[in-house]
Specification:
14 strands; lyase; 4 helices; glutathione-dependent formaldehyde- activating enzyme (gfa); zinc; three-stranded antiparallel β-sheet; alpha+beta; about 15% helix; signal; metal-binding; seven-stranded mixed β-sheet
Length: about 220
């Protein structure tokens, strides 16, 4: 990689320096030409960087990084693997999510279980059982909270999937792939959400409806 650096002897444009410092009425003939020549930014230096160094810098800047978030008290930390890709991302309006959060709906992102870790934030070790509150809220869903501050950290969906609340993470950590692609259990909503995102009356793949819950004519269904 070759970087060219051009250094000027003066901060101002040479023509302006020449105009004010070397006015023809004061300096004439060869002396003026010689001094103007000295003002030209003619010094160019080549700085060489090894190919391996520049490529390493580029690779480091493009390498994915893990995303993490802590509970309210900071005792627990959830970590998403750097290369993890979500299985899906939804806004859920089910009664369980609303009752357990106190919110009208929840934005959740679904990952394969190996892509997510729940650890003690200070040591990075596995949290002991008394640091967690586990609650089976349906046949296939078990939710995990911090035992100190009761923050919801994750939910296990069967044996292979983990659901994370998007609200745990800062805006800068939420990529486009985590943005909700659909609303689910929309018939259980407590308010309409007019965002134009597709909506399923029940779980994913069920009948779709409009932002205000109206059915689509079969030929117009998105």
């Amino acid at each position: 990689m070759l970087i060219l650096l051009r250094l000027s002897l003066f901060a101002t444009h040479p023509s302006r320096v020449a105009q004010h410092a070397y006015h023809p009425s004061l300096v004439k003939g060869p002396a003026l030409s010689r001094r103007r020549h000295l003002l030209q930014p003619r010094h160019t230096f080549a700085v060489h960087m090894s190919g391996s160094s520049s490529s390493n810098l580029a690779m480091e800047s493009l390498a994915p990084v893990a995303k993490s978030a802590t509970c309210f008290c900071g005792s627990l930390e959830v970590i998403v693997a750097p290369a993890a890709q979500p299985v899906s991302s939804s806004i859920c309006h089910c009664a369980n999510c609303r009752s357990l959060s106190g919110a009208p709906f929840l934005a959740n992102v679904l990952f394969a279980k190996p892509d997510v870790q729940l650890v003690l934030s200070k040591t990075g070790g596995a949290p002991p059982s008394n640091a967690l509150i586990k609650q089976a809220t349906s046949k296939h869903v078990s939710r995990v909270r911090c035992a100190k501050c009761y923050s919801p950290m994750l939910a296990s969906l069967g044996e292979a999937r983990v659901v994370l609340p998007v609200a745990l993470f800062s805006k800068s950590q939420v990529p486009d792939s985590w943005k909700p692609a659909q609303h689910i259990w929309y018939d259980s909503r407590v308010m309409d959400v007019t965002d134009g995102v597709q909506k399923f009356r029940k779980n994913f793949g069920s009948e779709k409806c409009s932002d205000i819950g109206e059915s689509f004519p079969e030929e117009d269904a998105p």
